[in-house]
Design brief:
By secondary structure, the protein is mainly alpha-helical. Helix content is 67%, strand content 0%. The chain has 9 helices and no strands. The longest helix is centred in the last third of the chain and has 40 residues. The protein starts with a helix and ends with a helix.
Length: 218
């Protein structure tokens, strides 16, 4: 009986959770944070991490009491990393990721392969190119990661928060600035998907990066 219950529980945990379960858990966490006077956010922990590593000696932006202001948030990020690892390894769904035909065609049009059907790489959510060392440590891979990291880091600080800080915490506090930021997230995502990615990145940036990469002696 215990074995059957254990197998049923593992099977349930390995499947995607319903929205009302995950959403309810997030709501409970937000209620606890509101009553404790704390704001939830992920990008702010980057500032706390830099401060903990001594960046405050170089720039005043990182000079603050990170233990008092963001110490609990750093622990949350550590828990999120551990939880993500458990979910992607111990509770991994053995079934391949189901993609729509239009999504699959779009991924292939960008020159990328579809996520692994056999769960050999990560959790099968990313194209194989992103996990291959020859791509990650190539000129193109490093440049894309540096540019992506810069845009994410600059954007979150310029907007005063990331998607979790504005869309979850800010909207829970009924902050007008967070509502504007969330609307901007959606507008930016649509513009990236339908305009920037197929036009600028695919036709201009990617060929330029490939040309620069081929110009270096191998």
């Amino acid at each position: 009986m215990k074995i059957l219950l254990s197998q049923s529980l593992m099977a349930y945990l390995s499947e995607p959770w319903p929205w009302y379960v995950s959403g309810g858990l997030i709501a409970i966490i937000m209620v606890l944070l509101l009553f404790s006077g704390k704001n939830f956010g992920v990008s702010a922990t980057m500032r706390a991490g830099c401060s903990a590593l001594g960046a405050g000696k170089i720039n005043d932006f990182f000079h603050f009491d990170w233990k008092k202001a963001q110490g609990w948030n750093l622990l949350f990020i550590v828990g999120a990393l551990i939880g993500g690892w458990i979910a992607s390894t111990l509770l991994n769904d053995p079934e391949p990721l189901a993609l729509g035909s239009r999504t699959a065609e779009h991924i292939k049009s960008l020159g990328l392969s579809l996520p692994k059907e056999s769960k050999e790489i990560a959790s099968g959510f990313l194209p194989a190119e992103f996990s291959k060392p020859e791509f990650v440590f190539s000129f193109k891979g490093i440049l894309l990661m540096v540019l992506g990291g810069f845009f994410v880091g600059f954007g979150t600080r310029y907007a005063g928060g990331c998607t979790s800080g504005h869309a979850i915490s800010g909207l829970s506090d009924l902050q007008p600035a967070s509502l504007i930021a969330v609307i901007g997230f959606f507008i930016g995502g649509i513009a990236m998907t339908y305009f920037l990615l197929p036009l600028f990145y695919k036709q201009i940036l990617f060929p330029l990066i490939n040309e620069l990469q081929n110009s270096f002696p191998k």
